[in-house]
Design brief:
Elements: E1 3-5, H1 15-20, E2 26-28, H2 30-35, H3 39-44, H4 48-52, E3 58-60, H5 64-70, E4 72-77, E5 80-84, E6 91-94, H6 96-106, E7 110-112, H7 124-148, E8 155-160, H8 166-178, E9 183-186, H9 195-206, E10 215-217, H10 223-231, E11 236-237, H11 241-246, E12 250-253, E13 256-259, H12 279-283, H13 286-294, H14 299-324
Parallel strand pairs: 1-2, 2-3, 3-7, 7-8, 8-9, 9-10, 10-11
Antiparallel strand pairs: 4-5, 5-6, 12-13
Length: 343
């Protein structure tokens, strides 16, 4: 499970904290880093890992999702997307050529092919166009990456699109496998389609991916979604949930979420989770953390974010142990994404 360091840092947490919480790999965002401070600046400062003070593996996404979801689009064609920067309104062009060059300069261990990520409720014509564009851009990404990556040893993953359409998923997966990427991501999910349809789309994708390459489900997140995906052969995940929820006093536990701003925790001497061996739970009470949020101290979001990141690393460890012990079928997650723990 990768914590998300959008702009080169995981919000509120130092690299030392992340390593102590069990993180082994982080995600950086190509779109944000190319706009600020710029890929050339990151390269001049030693590459993304040295820039961020993180001395373990990193992955950079392609920037495609952010372009299609955050920016004011001005049109796209076979070469990429024209959009206005959300920072200063300047026109920017980003396509497979630019994305590969930026990711090469950033220098992460794993780069992602540039893709078109359509919304969950898009019409069939838009879905078909997105898949065709994703496949064309994947070919360009692979060629540019091979031309650039002479000695750097940077892996490149292709991204399977196709929404929740079984035939589209199958076709896209098979075409990408023919291009022989180092790994394969499942994109275009966790965008509002719901758990059941997401699981079906995973099934229709992993069946056509090779067993000897990593499978990465992008943007997923909730414990039961991760467990369902692992049972179907997925290896890697990323999500902003641990830190986004942490900044809002929502703590993850084995039994659901705790809403630590609630008045019931004012004098609660218990840690967030009694079984947790993390720094937050070993040193601070729910009452103290609630106090930090009530008075606006920045330590509050830091502590809950740290706990949540550690929770997800513990969850992945539990899953790996269950696989080792042939006990995955007995592992239980939350009943839903919105499960709340007992006070």
């Amino acid at each position: 499970f990768m914590a998300v360091g959008t702009r080169g840092s995981v919000k509120g947490l130092t690299p030392e904290m992340l390593g102590g919480a069990g993180c082994e790999i982080l995600l950086g965002n190509t779109y944000h880093l190319m706009l600020r401070p710029g890929a050339e600046t990151v390269a001049a400062l030693g590459g993304l890992q040295k820039f961020a003070g993180w001395h373990r593996p990193m992955l950079t996404d392609s920037g495609g999702f952010q372009v299609f979801s955050l920016s004011e689009l001005r049109g796209f064609d076979e070469t990429g997307v024209n959009f206005r920067s959300h920072i200063d309104g300047t026109m920017v062009h980003l396509g497979p050529l630019e994305s590969m060059r930026v990711q090469h300069l950033l220098g992460a261990d794993i780069a992602m092919a540039f893709d078109d990520c359509p919304p969950a409720d898009c019409p069939p014509q838009r879905l078909a166009e997105a898949m065709a564009r994703t496949l064309a851009w994947a070919k360009t990404s692979k060629q540019v990456h091979e031309d650039l990556d002479v000695s750097q040893g940077q892996a490149l993953f292709g991204i399977v699109q196709g929404g929740t359409d079984p035939q589209a998923r199958q076709h896209c997966a098979q075409e990408l496998v023919a291009l022989n990427f180092d790994g394969y991501a499942i994109g275009g999910l966790a965008v509002g389609e719901g758990h059941a349809r997401m699981v079906q789309a995973i099934d229709h994708t992993v069946a056509f991916l090779p067993y000897d390459r990593p499978r990465y489900l992008m943007g997923v997140g909730y414990p039961r979604d991760i467990l369902a995906a692992v049972k179907r052969g997925v290896d890697m995940f990323d999500c902003v949930l641990p830190t986004r929820n942490g900044r809002n006093a929502l703590a993850f536990t084995r039994n659901g979420r705790l809403r630590l701003r609630n008045a019931q925790y004012i004098r609660d001497t218990r840690p967030i989770e009694a079984e947790c061996d993390g720094y937050c739970c070993q040193n601070f009470s729910r009452g103290y953390i609630r106090h930090l949020f009530s008075v606006g101290e920045m330590l509050g979001p830091t502590l809950v974010s740290l706990h949540n990141v550690h929770f997800f690393q513990r969850w992945m460890l539990d899953i790996r142990r269950a696989i080792r012990d042939n006990a995955l079928s007995g592992l239980k997650a939350w009943d839903s994404e919105l499960s709340d723990a007992a006070p």
